[in-house]
User: Fold this.
Amino acid sequence: MAEILQKSADDYTSRGHLDPAGFKQHITFNRYQPPADLAPFVSHFWVMSWNRGTELPYVSEQVMHKPYVDVYISKDDSGIQCTFLNRKDYKAEDENRIIGARFLPGAFHSFWHWSMSGLRDKTIPLQQIFPEATEEFVKNTLSLPDQGAVPMLIELLRTKNPQPDVNIAVVNDIIATIETENLQTVAQVAKRFAKSERWLQQLFQDYVGTGIKWLLQRNKLLEAAQSIRETEDPDWVAMAYDLEYSSQQHFITDFKRVLGKTPLQYKKELNKQKYSA
Assistant:
């Protein structure tokens, strides 16, 4: 029986995009709900396309705002993109279409039965995990419209026969609680879940590939980036202390190390794009 795809009802707005307006302007992005048997592992399937023609390439700067893993297929390359610690840039040029599956945080552990820390900051070939993803498979999948292509990717994931794992739900509960309750430190998270800090760190290293401290820092920096986008004249000192940095310089150092530019440089680039549009 053929899969019947349902588009995700909510509008996709990722805090991880540092230029969300530019992304929406240049990229067509559709999401589809996973079937019931893959819902414990996959957040959504997605199709991203663009046709830049003779225009200059559009560079999309993105921070992985949650520790996702994406399995993707495209004419240029197909692979598995794992959690990246710092900013990662993507270039849209010519005409292209990418079909992918975004896994829930920690869920790719059911497809990769070792510590996810071994895949941190890596994009690995698709066939390394899915040998069925031959060149012919990729070509045939890309030749189909979304309603045919996404089910091909669904069937590819099913070849691994992933098994339920209670730790996946634990990881996602922790991440959701951190965001909704604005937890700032590993100690606060440990207390909230009645677990030791050591246990939490090991869980995230094994299932996510990063320490939980990394996630807490990313939340701070993404909150800062969003505030910079939405504030006409940011108060940098107030912003640093609102985010519980000990000093403005500490905030600037962290922001630049992860996003590749200072908060002021980021704001100036946003203004330049705004007034040149």
